[in-house]
From TrEMBL:
Keyword Hydrolase: yes
Complex and partners: Homodimer.
Listed NCBIfam families: nudix-type nucleoside diphosphatase, YffH/AdpP family (TIGR00052), PRK15009.1 (NF011585)
Cofactor: Mg(2+)
Entry-linked InterPro entries: NDP_pyrophosphatase, NUDIX_hydrolase-like_dom_sf, NUDIX_hydrolase_dom
Family: Belongs to the Nudix hydrolase family. NudK subfamily.
CDD domains in UniProt: NUDIX_GDPMK
Protein name in the entry: GDP-mannose pyrophosphatase
Reaction equations catalysed: GDP-alpha-D-mannose + H2O = alpha-D-mannose 1-phosphate + GMP + 2 H(+)
Coiled coil spans: none
Residues of the Nudix hydrolase domain: 48-185
PROSITE patterns (alphabetical): NUDIX
Amino acid sequence: MSSHGRSSKIENVQTELLSDNWYVLRKFTYDLIKRNGERQPQSREVYDRGNGATILLYNRPKKTVLLINQFRMPTYVNGNPTGMLLETCAGLLDDDSPEDCIRKEAIEETGFAVGHVEKLFECYMSPGSVTEIVHFFAAEYDESQRANAGGGVEDEDIDVLEVPFTEALAMIKDGRIKDGKTIMLLQYAQLQGWLA
């Protein structure tokens, strides 16, 4: 029988603030009450940077997608020699709705003012340590929607790339695309046959 519907119970939750420098890092100590009634003390560090949104911008007639290339320090620390990462447009919600956030990010990062955005799904991206839920969107783009050159704001230094869809899929396979949300969106588009 599936344990999908079963909820673990936790008791005696204690919270300790470890860092409130950029985002919020807390240590949680608690007792996990297991299915058999056994009490197991556990502690976990939880990083809260808010929720985010990402979007696949695609052009059916040209069979292309818009990707951005930007420096990501955590990837540099973990073996990415340049620190540059090819990704779909994305950003943190702050106080915006997911739809408003991703329209704003699309203009800032890619330069395209997309109208209708389609919500595909949402998911926890790193549930072992990060609270973040990411809302996934897709929208078609064409040159008539270009509002500016893109490239990001303030401290961002973003290159915008228009990539043939077949090449983007090949880039997953050969490791040029290593970003989780981007791989998920490209594979979603492939499953839907949008750019077949």
